[in-house]
Amino acid sequence: MNIIIFGPPGAGKGTQSNFLIQDHGMFQVSTGDLLRNELKKVSELSKQIKSIMDAGKLVSDNIIYSLIEKKLSDKEIKNKIIFDGFPRNLDQVSKLELMLQKHDQKISKVLNLKVDYSILIKRLSGRISCSNCKKTFNEFFDPPPSNCCQKQEFIKRSDDNEETVSKRLKTYDNETLPILEFYKKQNKVVDIDAMKQITEVRKEIRGIIAS
Ligand SMILES: [Zn+2]
User: Fold this and answer.
1) How far is the CA of 150 from the centre of ligand 1 (A)?
2) For 10-50, how does the pLDDT look when each residue is reduced to its tens digit (9 = 90+)?
3) Model's pTM, two decimal places?
4) Centroid of ligand 1 to alpha carbon of 160 (angstroms)
5) Tens digits of per-residue pLDDT, 154-185?
6) CA–centroid distance, residue 130 to ligand 1 (Å)
7) Shortest CA distance to 107 belongs to which of 11, 18, 184?
8) Residue 124 CA to ligand 1 centre (angstroms)
């Protein structure tokens, strides 16, 4: 089956995708990885992507679609795909549905990772890492030990502040959340409490996939 792992930034989509790969031999399709992999190749498309990114512009949906269609036509991963971070809006859903049809596939389930926004903001804006060993911590949930590398210098990524995080959540509400309604009408959405322990969430997803 093909799955969309769905949820706001910081809900743990990447972590749970990795578990799906380990537990069920699935393949993750995320736009970031698709772009990075294409850039490693020597191709017309790769040249095109490079020049767009060098110019600091966003890669167009059409380029993303052609990369995704390549994956959909790959027999080795047919009906074993986890979509992570795509689709992001209803336009992308329409296009994805058309491409799936063309390749005789469908989305079977949308796993909706639910987390309170107040917790997401703390998860994302609290992220810090040790400047020496690069180990990551969270100021709220996982404070660093007092003896981490003795230096006691911790770095925060500049886009991990509360204002940026709130903005990302607002974009998610306005553009991405409507996707759920589309798939709810098809009875494909399964809500998952993603505030539980990571391993608990993994178990729950395993049960859903097995049923
Ligand atoms: Zn350290």
Assistant:
1) 7
2) 899 999 999 999 999 999 999 988 999 999 999 999 999 99
3) 0.87
4) 20
5) 999 887 888 888 998 999 999 999 999 999 99
6) 5
7) 184
8) 20
Determine the distance separating the centroid of ligand 1 and the alpha carbon of 168, expressed in angstroms: 29
Architecture of domain 2-115+175-210: 3-Layer(aba) Sandwich (3.40)
pLDDT in tens, 99-126: 999 999 999 999 999 999 999 999 889 9
Ligand 1 centroid, distance to 151 Cα (angstroms): 8
Confidence band, pLDDT 50/70/90 cuts, at residue 151 = low
Write out the E strands in the chain: 2-6, 27-30, 81-84, 107-114, 127-130, 136-138, 154-155, 189-193
Residue 36 CB neighbour total at 10 angstroms: 11
Cα-to-centroid distance, 181 and ligand 1 (Å): 44
For 41-54, give the DSSP string.
S-SHHHHHHHHHHH
